[in-house]
Design a protein that fits this description.
With about 425 residues, the protein is an alpha+beta fold. The chain has 11 helices and 19 strands. The protein starts with 9 loop residues before the first strand and ends with a strand.
Length: about 425
């Protein structure tokens, strides 16, 4: 029995990337192969794995022998071939509309909303793409965004109002104060870099006035720069005081103690809520101890109260807020009540400490008046009044009328120095 030997097909790949007439159907490929095969059988595969066949105006067709070592030599008309793949020229799926109008097909990686339709934006290539500052949004030269005045825009505004959604020309842009390459429209620039409230100040008012009342959830909000902001030091010298504009700083001087207590509580509520809502968190805000509040009264409205009277002001406000809270469960009142409840224990401690300290302090004060009388300074002894005594630092604070302060201090501080030495305590004049 004789078995006929069937020659193995020669595997090839066609390279049509340089061919100008790529077939668009299976029949077209069959027709191309019929033209190609008579030329291919004359090629010696050992001369190289790739050959290029010239088809004149239609360009070249490349043939890759995928296994040249196993191909029969020479080829003949009976040699079978197997086309394993075809390399076609890339198709431009997104052609540039501007280039296409000139009869050229160019890949366009960017979208131009002005070209095409709303459902299918047009395309623009690297050479014709136009980018405005402030965004990587592209357009063609014919559809560059315009400013509201009708002129071609230069930059997109990235401010809080525009959010890179509106473009503006040079006349309607204001540069970033620290980076000339960034610009905003007038309104967004004013929002981000507000002017300081002080007339003629060129600095940015990056600090908001924190003045508020317990009847209004909104703080003042006037903008002040770092140089002109007034800090109301109600939390002690080591903590940052409430920021105030010039108007509300001036209003403090004529405020009664009851009003100052309400302002202290309201300002602390605002600071507490701001920290709670901060993206980065922060330390909680606490009301100042009433020893600090007592000195706030002395320095702000020249009112001297003992600790019991200061505590009574906070208790009165607390009772009033509880009555309001029964009718109004708003966050402002509840936050204020929470702060006052937290402060209650420290107030009781301060009142008791004050009473113990002042009992000792009034003994020192009585000795001070006796020394003044023994020195013949009877008028001064009658005029000086007790203010405070700090047991821990051993400081006796006294008040002396302004017109008699120089007599109490003496030349070069001689009088007060002598009193300090004889009493063994530090004597300080309370500020008027």
């Amino acid at each position: 029995m004789t078995t006929a030997h069937v020659a193995a097909a020669v595997p090839v790949m066609l390279d049509l990337r340089a061919h100008r007439k790529v077939p668009g159907s299976p029949d077209g490929y069959v027709e191309l192969w019929e033209r190609l095969e008579p030329v291919l059988v004359t090629v010696d595969p050992r001369s190289g794995p790739r050959v290029r066949l010239d088809f004149g105006e239609e360009g070249e067709v490349g043939v890759w022998f995928l296994s040249p070592a196993t191909a029969p030599v020479p080829f003949s008309a009976a040699t079978p071939f197997a086309v394993r793949g075809v390399l076609e020229p890339p198709r431009v799926r997104y052609p540039c509309d501007t280039c296409r109008a000139s009869g050229v097909t160019t890949y366009a990686p960017f979208s131009c909303t002005g070209c095409g339709t709303k459902e299918r934006p047009g395309r623009v290539c690297d050479a014709h793409a136009v980018f405005l500052e402030g965004s990587l949004r592209a357009s063609c030269a014919r559809h560059v965004p315009t400013c509201r005045c009708g002129r071609s825009a230069r930059s997109w505004c990235g401010g809080t109002r525009c959010r890179s959604g509106r473009a503006w020309c040079d006349d309607h842009l204001v540069s970033h104060p620290g980076d000339a390459s960034l610009a905003y429209c007038v309104d967004c620039h004013a929002d981000r870099f507000p002017a300081c409230e002080r007339p003629g100040c060129p600095a940015t008012g990056h600090i908001r006035c924190e003045h508020r009342t317990l009847d209004d959830a909104r703080a003042c909000g006037r903008r002040v720069c770092g140089e002109h902001v007034m800090r109301w030091q109600i939390y002690g010298s080591r903590s940052k005081g409430l920021a105030l504009c010039s108007r509300h700083d001036g209003d403090l001087r004529g405020s009664a103690p009851e009003a100052l207590v309400a302002l202290v509580v309201a300002g602390t509520v605002a600071r507490s809520q701001a920290r709670r809502g901060s993206r980065h968190g922060g330390r909680r805000a606490f009301l100042p101890r009433i020893g600090i509040v007592r000195h706030i009264f002395i320095n702000t409205c020249q009112c001297v109260l003992d600790m019991g009277a200061v505590d009574a002001l906070f208790v009165r406000l607390q009772d009033d807020l509880r009555r309001r809270g029964a009718r109004d469960s708003g966050n402002l009142v509840q936050t204020a009540l929470g702060l006052l409840d937290e402060q209650a224990a420290s107030r009781r401690e301060d009142v008791q400490r004050f009473r113990d300290s002042h009992e000792e302090g009034r003994g020192h004060f009585a000795r001070l008046r006796t020394l003044l009388q023994q020195s013949g300074k009877h008028e001064l002894a009658d005029a000086v009044t007790f203010s405070d005594y700090r047991r821990k630092s051993n400081i006796l604070f006294v008040r002396v009328p302004q017109e008699m302060r120089s007599r109490f201090i003496g030349t070069g501080g001689s009088v007060v120095k002598d009193l300090r030495t004889r009493l063994g305590i530090n004597i300080q004049l309370e500020r008027e």
